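queue> pop job 88
queue> type: inverse folding (structure -> sequence)
queue> payload:
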């Protein structure tokens, strides 16, 4: 597995991995898989980076927002704050929102 931190990656890093699986771990729950279903660019300016990752999880996944440890075969691992935005009989949809200043080039 690569030595990358998911929370330091950018929109362009996640985009090719739409429809791929991540393993999720958190305390007091069994690991489960989520699928990256959408990556949305929202950057308002060249100096500000904003994007949203949308994931689909099984119906048994925790329904509350929390910090999870995610692992991906190609992207590596890291922590991410996931917020549930929708729940139905087929599962839970989570979002992770990134909003940060771009590095000076």
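queue> result:
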């Amino acid at each position: 597995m690569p030595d990358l931190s998911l929370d330091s990656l950018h929109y362009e890093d996640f985009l090719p991995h739409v429809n791929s699986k991540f393993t999720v771990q958190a305390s007091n729950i069994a690991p489960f898989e989520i699928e990256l279903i959408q990556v949305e660019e929202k950057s308002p300016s060249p100096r500000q980076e904003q994007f949203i990752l949308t994931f689909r999880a099984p119906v048994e996944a925790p329904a509350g927002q929390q910090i999870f440890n995610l692992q991906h075969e190609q992207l590596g691992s890291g922590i991410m704050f996931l917020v549930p935005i929708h729940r139905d009989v087929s599962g839970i949809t989570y979002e992770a929102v990134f909003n940060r200043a771009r590095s000076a080039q």
